[in-house]
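Hey L., structure's done. Input below.
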Amino acid sequence: MSETPIAERLPHAGAMVLIESVLEHGESHIICRANTGPIDEHPLARNGRLPATALAEYGAQATAVHGSLLGGDAPLRPGRLVALPELNLACATLDEATELTIHAERLGGTAVGESYRFSVSSKERMLARGRATIMFPETGSAP
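Output:
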């Protein structure tokens, strides 16, 4: 893997950089690791709990890191998450710090967007899975 830090592969900064490391990647997939850290300090937490819907952000960030890795040394290509069809959640909230494994598989893409399937698990327990559709604003095709 390139030595480029993960934070430079994402359109986020600071605490919103949720992916900690890339465990494996190839042309069509990526596996990442993250740790929620103390839930009350998580940037997406509400009232001391992390809504399970926030797990989709982990999936989306894994897709962004994958796209950046596929792009090599090209400048970061900004994208917008425009759809989360088939989002399935196994819980309502996360209430304590949890180590997460994020798998993302590229289903296809064109110059205007990409489609991925993703899953987020903890200790072999599936927490969330779904598909993410990302559009690239510079093509004029994103809403």
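The CA atoms of residues 33 and 101 lie 5 Å apart. The chain has one helix and nine strands.

-- N.
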